[in-house]
Amino acid sequence: MEAPPFSVAVSSSSSSSSRTVFRSLSSSAHTSSLFFLRNNHYKTRHLKVNSSGKFAVRASLGGDSVVTLLDYGAGNVRSVRNAIRYLGFDIKDVQTPEDILNAKRLIFPGVGAFAPAMDVLNSKGMAEALCSYIENDRPFLGICLGLQLLFESSEENGPVKGLGLIPGVVGRFDSSNGFTVPHIGWNALEISEDSEILDEISNRHVYFVHSYRAMPSDKNKEWISSTCSYGDRFIASVRRGNVHAVQFHPEKSGEVGLSVLRRFLLPKSTVTKKPNEGKASRLAKRVIACLDVRTNDQGDLVVTKGDQYDVREQTEENEVRNLGKPVELAGQYYKDGADEVSFLNITGFRDFPLGDLPMLQVLRYTSENVFVPLTVGGGIRDFKDANGRHYSSLEVASEYFRSGADKISIGSDAVYAAEEYLRTGVKTGKTSLEQISKVYGNQAVVVSIDPRRVYLKSPDDVEFKVIRVTNPGPNGEEYAWYQCTVNGGREGRPIGAYELAKAVEELGAGEILLNCIDCDGQGKGFDTDLVKLISDSVSIPVIASSGAGCPDHFSEVFNKTNASAALAAGIFHRKEVPIQSVKEHLFKEGIEVRM
């Protein structure tokens, strides 16, 4: 399968940082991530990565197999490309406004923020061509931001004028009513009778990730083909004639999402087998599979798992614990029903993360056959290479996005940024959190927190947030605070998990991955005291991590806290507990899950 072409260079945007990133990602394949092989310091690091070797079989569609893709160069559209190819179609990238007007079918997978997207469309003369194409009832599918841009304007960093094809203003979700923002996860649709491309969803969940939405009104009701409930009832999809747009991500909604793309690309096809009717009714709790990836002593990239962050076997050889190959495991977890797959890159290259070609290849291979969200963390920060060239964290994140990541996870760098913010009270706009969330939206930025429990005799012993713990400490202590760590848990910092979570939310994080060093690898359950503390304190989603040993631990954390998702690693890798068993247990307990 050929490498997807890079997008058109962008000469205008709302921020200089986004201009730099779009230009760097829009050049020829020679300036893609492979150019980093030129750095002699890393030429000797030959690491082996195996893909699954399974590729989609192309349909025989003759001359009608081309899909025109409008990719303006921000965020992960590799998954859309892979889904289109998986369904047997070829891709033609928009280079000029004429390419839009000449398209037989056009897909606009809008990602990122509203204003930069409109800047690109206007500066390239594509806004007018796009309006003309849609007004002439040509086959069109907008995805996420590709739906929002059809409306009159958006409040995101605005007001910002949109294409004005559909009456209405795109506004932010209201978090004051107890709903976390962004709206992240698998939710249910209320579908109208004449939806066409949604005909095979059959009451099953689809994947959303957004902070802004358009609301139904008398003026736009003729456009609406489905709605979704999250605090308020918002527009989930629109349809008029051959023009369709969806707020959710079909390319990240598994087989259900692929059916939406298939119905758009092959509108005259008939359903030979009626899909099983689902029971989706509201936002589901997510079950996430996590893969800690690093090189072993033989140079192979493997999935490993730590015991309180120690990934080496307690044997004479002291070898790295090897639990499988990352691409194959990710593919299996997708088939098993994982709602997301998270890669934590704990291999080397800390001084040169863009030289980590094997990890980039893992993302590329995985995204070819895994159609649920992919998150990657590790080494996302500013750095200089061996030649003294400076790379921003935004450039590092952008390469991960272009390689197939939907979200990036920031660890140690977020701790330093939060400490500085709490010390000065100033948002500099220069931290990795602020830079990445400004260009790609806060829904694309996860902060991974690695705290360690510190027991106290009195709640007045420290200046940080202290809680009364459910289980007393070794000396009968009734209180504890959670000290944040950096560098894989090796260094404690003078900041608590509560203080860090509040600060990173202010700086632009859209989600928190909440680990616990004390529980890691123990199989005794999540630290519900910690999860409740953080999930009650922020208005962004919290993922509970560390300690899962059986299905009951998942229902416990969902029943006792406001966690939006729960993540596990070792019990899945060692096949102790199948993902489907976890979901069946949650379903029996009355907890909404995607089945």
TrEMBL record:
Plastid is among the record's keywords: yes
Gene: LOC111476400
Record-level Gene Ontology MF annotations: glutaminase activity; imidazoleglycerol-phosphate synthase activity; lyase activity
Protein name, entry field: Imidazole glycerol phosphate synthase hisHF
Binding residue positions for L-glutamine: 144
EC number(s) given by UniProt: 3.5.1.2
Organism: Cucurbita maxima
Region (PRFAR binding) residue spans: 411-412, 448-450, 520-521, 546-547, 569-570
Gene Ontology CC: one annotated term: chloroplast
Active site: residue positions: 144, 249, 251, 292, 450
Reactions the enzyme catalyzes: 5-[(5-phospho-1-deoxy-D-ribulos-1-ylimino)methylamino]-1-(5-phospho-beta-D-ribosyl)imidazole-4-carboxamide + L-glutamine = D-erythro-1-(imidazol-4-yl)glycerol 3-phosphate + 5-amino-1-(5-phospho-beta-D-ribosyl)imidazole-4-carboxamide + L-glutamate + H(+); L-glutamine + H2O = L-glutamate + NH4(+)
UniProt-annotated binding residues for substrate: 379, 515
GO BP: L-histidine biosynthetic process
Subcellular location: Plastid, Chloroplast
SUPFAM superfamilies recorded: Class I glutamine amidotransferase-like, Ribulose-phoshate binding barrel
Glutamine amidotransferase domain boundaries: 69-265
InterPro entries in alphabetical order: Aldolase_TIM, Class_I_gatase-like, GATASE, His_biosynth, HisF, IGPS_HisA/HisF, IGPS_HisHF, Imidazole-glycPsynth_HisH
Stated family: Belongs to the HisA/HisF family.
Pathway: Amino-acid biosynthesis; L-histidine biosynthesis; L-histidine from 5-phospho-alpha-D-ribose 1-diphosphate: step 5/9
Alphabetized PROSITE patterns for the sequence: GATASE_TYPE_1 (PS51273)
Entry keywords, A to Z: Amino-acid biosynthesis, Chloroplast, Glutamine amidotransferase, Histidine biosynthesis, Hydrolase, Lyase, Multifunctional enzyme, Plastid
Biological function: IGPS catalyzes the conversion of PRFAR and glutamine to IGP, AICAR and glutamate. The glutaminase domain produces the ammonia necessary for the cyclase domain to produce IGP and AICAR from PRFAR. The ammonia is channeled to the active site of the cyclase domain.
